[in-house]
Amino acid sequence: MKIVFLSVDDEFAGSMQKYLYQRHPEWVAGSVISTCPIYKKSKIGAAWFVFRKSGFRYGAEMFKMKVIRKVTQSAKQILPSALATQHNVPMFYSKNINDEPSLAQLKAWSPDFIISTNFSHYIGDRVRNLARVGAWNLHKSYLPHYRGIAPSFYALLNGEKRVGVTLHKLAKGFDTGDIIRQVELPVEPGDTVYSLNQKTSDAGGRMMAQVLEEAIAQLPAGTPQPAGEWPNYTYPNRSQIKAFLNKGLRF
How many helices (DSSP H) and strands (DSSP E) are in the chain? Predict the structure, then answer.
């Protein structure tokens, strides 16, 4: 089995990948690391986009979660780049997974599976079709609920009692493909956006490793997501962030 991971280089993607690395590092043929926090935007462009859409407070909280924690808690965090380096897995840094250099590298790895784990790019059909067996995504919500960006934020804002994580097939659109497997988790008192991201990433990583082990004997067929008008969430606006804070919720 040959697997290529797609991810940003953060602790949530690391939690998603680490269990497969622990159990079957020989299966990982390559690791693609995104160089842009938002698809087709530079780091400065992404910061400006988030500021305009969501305001300073949200941008500062995301910077704290994504950058400050990486620096101050580097000894505790497991990043995709560190996992790849530890296990001598080749890495490729991509600004656009759909461009020709990225496609060429994916083809060179000849993957059976391409698996997106907390990735920041839209994955087009040319990439999806390169996977011999399947192209999958691990999403931090119980699909079809909370497709898109910031599912943990919106779950807390809406007072959900349970959240989840879903392994699903990649398809046109965002988080729309057939469901392979899901895990549901309770929202505990005091949970934050960060703690829910941690819990769903860890549970998803365990689940994914198990599914891949089972796939040796029988490939999961997948189940279509329920029909209906399911919202696709994007970055929260300033009024949503104000409502979040007024409820005493924390990032």
Answer: 9, 9
- Max distance between CA atoms of the chain, in angstroms, equals 51
Choose among 32, 168, 10, 35: nearest CA to 109. 32
Q: DSSP H helical segments within 31-142, as ranges? A: 43-63, 69-72, 80-86, 100-109, 125-128
Domains of the chain: 3-246 (3.40.50.170)
What digits encode the pLDDT tens for the residues 1-29?
A: 999 999 999 999 999 999 999 999 999 99
Token look-up 């934050």 returns: 192
Rounded CA Rg of the chain? 17
106-to-93, 182, 225, 248 alpha-carbon distances in Å: 12, 27, 28, 45
Look over the chain and give the mean of its residue pLDDT values, rounded to a whole number. Answer: 93
Report the pLDDT value the prediction gives residue 225, as an integer from 0 to 100. 97
55 three-state secondary structure = helix
Residues 63-93: tens digit of each pLDDT: 777 777 766 766 577 999 999 999 999 999 9
